[in-house]
Amino acid sequence: MIPFDYERAMGAASAVATVTGHSGAAFLAGGTNLVDHMKLGIATPDLLVDISKLPLDTIEELPDGRVRIGATVRNSDLAAHPLIRQRYPVLSQALLAGASGQLRNMATTGGNLLQRTRCVYFQDVSTPCNKREPGTGCSALGGYTRNHAILGASDSCVAVHPSDMAVAMAALDAKVVVLGAHGKRSLPLTALFRNPGNEPNRDTTLEHGELIIAVDLPADTSSLSAYRKVRDRASYAFALVSVAAVVDIDDSGTFREARIALGGVAHQPWRAERAEEVLRGAEATEENFRRAADAELVFASPLPDNAFKIPMVRNTMIAVLRQLAGGQNNG
After folding, report:
1. Cα–Cα dist 114/162, whole Å
2. What does the alpha-carbon distance between residue 288 and residue 71 come to, in Å, rounded to a whole number?
3. What is the pLDDT of residues 175-189, one digit of tens each?
4. Using the 8-state DSSP alphabet, how is residue 175 labeled?
């Protein structure tokens, strides 16, 4: 690990000003991802601005019924909070499916969203990687690709985003509140992330120095929701595929609304918009569940080692929709 300076932030605005004005600076909160990358030589900031003591660690209901989650709320606290467990069970379930208890006790909401891929080539600094060093090539292409993308990838990068929490938040239509040098802005969580294109080194649409200060969840809680994660072992493993679904089905068994997000399949939490379009106004039947899954996966492009993800996503999505159509929330 190279030497670096450390500064404890006294306020969000001053932290943003410091990082914005210093190209080698980075924010530090839980450190569960950044510190690992510093040890591996992937990240080499020369100044860490510690935001962990800023008053961004609360979960509160806003006057209009939305719920605001501070950026430094720990994942364990978020999963256990009564508002989240009662009104957004899909989020609590996703958080509890991610990482170990020790990591959840340290990891923060903002840091979880901004964690970087676990692609083995990204984490091995002895191999070429466009995400780590633009223009050097993608070692995964022609290499080991079992865990990689089947949707939205490019010739420059086939890595996937690792967050479980982000998948649930994408299905919930969460919004991210960001503070930058020019003030505060709010954007849909799905607009925070980007496909790799020819700039895979950019995971998000944030500019250098912009700080996530909160995530807002919508007020509507009338829907059923569920999160299901398929992985190699029951604890401490990233998703091979995951599905978060939030649906509203009327008394006649017809979808009034369906929001679905997929994990483990793309450079970002993948919003399954084609599947959602098939389901809206359709009856909650096995045939329509299959039609929705097939519509989403028609453009999937598997790599040599991960064609199994296509039927795995299909079957997981159908199972989640079947569960919700039966009136069961997270199970």
Report:
1. 10
2. 38
3. 999 999 999 999 999
4. E
